[in-house]
Amino acid sequence: MKIEDCFYLGKIVRKYSFNGELLIKLDTDEPELYENLEAVFLDYKNTFIPFFIESSQLHKSNLLRVQFEDVTTEADADSLIKSDVYLPLEFLPKLEGNKFYFHEVIGFTIEDKNYGLVGTITGVNDTTAQALFEIEKDGKEILIPVNDEFIVTVDRKKKTVIVNTPEGLIDLYL
């Protein structure tokens, strides 16, 4: 399993007990979906390693208390704190309609109601205040905000996202 085949679930933030239990801060709106996992992948010292879960339960709102197999001491637990936690992409709940995961639309064609064919989505930049579609057209990069008001339709069968952007937005890049 490679990190590209997985999604970020959260981060190990601290120990919970003296017997190696840890708390994972989940990066999700639905923590209950991840309460009964059998295993997760940790980015541990720049190595992607599977860890099997002996027991787990939700702790407060978005914390998952876990006991990993073979992590039975404070020292074992200490070494895992601040590790990022991942799951394979197939564990993501399926989205329908105009909702999508950013990785899901990479490679989709994007069309604008006013402009027409814009180009191909090469990525989604979510490091800015507003996530942006990164679109390639004839060697140029076009950025369109990922905004519910702009997105008209996400057609998974045709691999197309249809948007209705403000007039002139796409022309700024060309």
Q: Specify the overall morphology.
A: elongated
Domain unit count: 2
Order of adjacent strands in the largest pleated sheet: 1-2-5-4-3-6
Largest beta-sheet details? 6 strands, antiparallel, barrel
| Regions with little confidence, pLDDT below 50 for 5+ residues | none
Fraction of residues in helix: under 10%
What is the radius of gyration computed over CA atoms, rounded to a whole number of angstroms?
20 Å
Q: How many helices in DSSP terms? A: 1
Structural class: mainly beta
CATH H-level name of the largest domain... which superfamily? RimM
What is the annotated CATH architecture of the largest domain?
Beta Barrel
Distance between the termini: 40 Å
Under CATH at level 1, the class of the largest domain stands as Mainly Beta
What is the CATH topology of the largest domain? Elongation Factor Tu (Ef-tu), domain 3
Note the quaternary state here.
single chain
| Number of β-strand runs | 12
Strand proportion, as a percent range, falls in over 45%
| Mean model confidence by pLDDT | 92
List SSEs in N-to-C order: EEEEEHEEEEEEE
